[in-house]
Amino acid sequence: MKDSSVAQRTVFFISDRTGITAETLGLSLISQFEGIPFIHVTLPFVDSAEKARETTQRINQAYQQDGAQPLVFATIVDPEIRSLLEKCDGFYIDFFKTFIPGLENELKMASANVMGRIHGVGDSNVYNTRIEAVNYALNYDDGARTNGYDTADVILVGVSRCGKTPTSLYLAMQFGIRAANYPITEEDLHSTQLPKALRPYQHKLFGLTIDPKRLHAIRSSRRPNSQYAQLAQCENEVKTVEAMFHQENIPYLSSTNLSIEELATKLMVISGIERRLR
Amino acid sequence: MKDSSVAQRTVFFISDRTGITAETLGLSLISQFEGIPFIHVTLPFVDSAEKARETTQRINQAYQQDGAQPLVFATIVDPEIRSLLEKCDGFYIDFFKTFIPGLENELKMASANVMGRIHGVGDSNVYNTRIEAVNYALNYDDGARTNGYDTADVILVGVSRCGKTPTSLYLAMQFGIRAANYPITEEDLHSTQLPKALRPYQHKLFGLTIDPKRLHAIRSSRRPNSQYAQLAQCENEVKTVEAMFHQENIPYLSSTNLSIEELATKLMVISGIERRLR
To answer: What is the reported pLDDT for B76?
Structure first.
């Protein structure tokens, strides 16, 4: 046992495939426990008895080193591989084993027991929808093109560096939504009227705004001491663009305290835009 | 009850935040049950008693319409909101409620019971790492720049349309990895030597390849009947680029049967590149 009052805990995320499901729920769960120094280890593609034995050894070693039982979050489909892993010295939770029997009972059907169902390739239409949405977001990033908004699901608008590009890309990657984005620049801000290129698409617009101080910090790290990064400049741009959103009846969110996931999912709730991917 | 032999089932993914965790595990679980027509409904930001009651009504209506009990996968932190939802007529599973008590016991600590821990903004360093990685992937997409590879974690190489761009963006968004990508074009394929711009970075290169028939289909939908899309052209490019990978000792994967998630996570395992985000 280490000297510190709270022992370090190694947390393993183990899967026969990508590990994304085990990580997503596992991280959500441990985020509810504060003050414990968690060490994360993701081990994907544990898809053979040999790899299961290696993994078990690694877990047992972590127990020795930490002096505290590692947490193990797993999504393992194959019962043989799972039974090997369950013998480890960790606090082992398998998300599939926990829920599959109850679902089999409720659905009156045996589960397929097949690995890689969810983050696999699956339907090639789904794959194409996703790639096309990513290409769309790239082609219509930062106002690069404005002819082609007819096929946009949403056009994000806001001042430079408020988070439009990552939000567009996330909408494309995660949900297959075609998201263009258009920067409201200084020349657009002489009035609170919409820029000409956007006027026919008012119903597709969604605004992003940001706290001027945060914008000032982001721009300053990009272009230190520029006019563009001045706090007064940021305040003025944000104030005008928010007035534009109000006047033109454009729904908007602030990126200041929201992650990209939160921005994207809130935007979908507010605008009613449906995902194209599942 | 509908006439069809297997009743439609509505599946709800419910959360007080983005719903991403509930969706990720819920989709993994139902992917193991084949032949049931599942209808997906994601309801994020169910964060008040009123929204919980509305949600419960919606679940009960789905029961009426389907004639089969809806599945409800939830991640709800607040006990009051959860107790309202639990009264619904669905087959209700709360992923937090299932595991938090066991973890509290193991960790000898009460959980924080705070919403939005995982897909929230959290540490602004994490946020900045992610945004910088996305910007890096965009700036170094498709060989757009080659001066700046010093700060790349990985440089993806492969023929045009083999999946480099979405993989780079996914690595950035999900893991904060700085991934450049460089297309091996016809003029690079007169020999199996590495293009000049890549030679100093051999240790950072990771290859992507693809089945020539699939490449032919992808290119054909983009530029029908072009020389670029011809099957013979695709076969030749793929053959030469794979010879280059072998000769230059570049690890590689085929994107033909792997999703973007699988490509990204396998690449990390093979190359040993560590995530910068958590």
So the answer is: 96
